[in-house]
Amino acid sequence: MKNLVFIVEDNPVYQKMLQVHFEEVLANYSVRTFSNPEDLLKHMSEKPFAVVLDHFFDTTKHTGLHYLKELRRNYSSIPIIYHTTLNEPAVRNEVLKLGAEEYIIKDSASLVRLRTALDVIHDKKSKEPFWKKIFK
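RESULT FIELD:
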């Protein structure tokens, strides 16, 4: 069974590139993409393996920080990878302080860093005690 990853990205070209990369290149993930974080929140009951969250959105007045806080508050066991063009140390520190697994800058190596972050999440989840997996 493939791990379900939610990707929130408002750039349709980049969104499609990420989906193809996860589903075809990595091959062990199924992907559901969202252009708007509000749409993501409506589907969180599907309990994705992980969420890849952007920072800037054209369709909402909030940044990814607002949605990261909401996700941590309501879905604390679901790992979040913050994936953005914003190379701002203060935002990076805030994102990590709020509990994101990783803060990844979109650049030519970001696909490799996304893969590494997902591998780390997979390793953590596979080493969880049996009782913790049952009561998620």
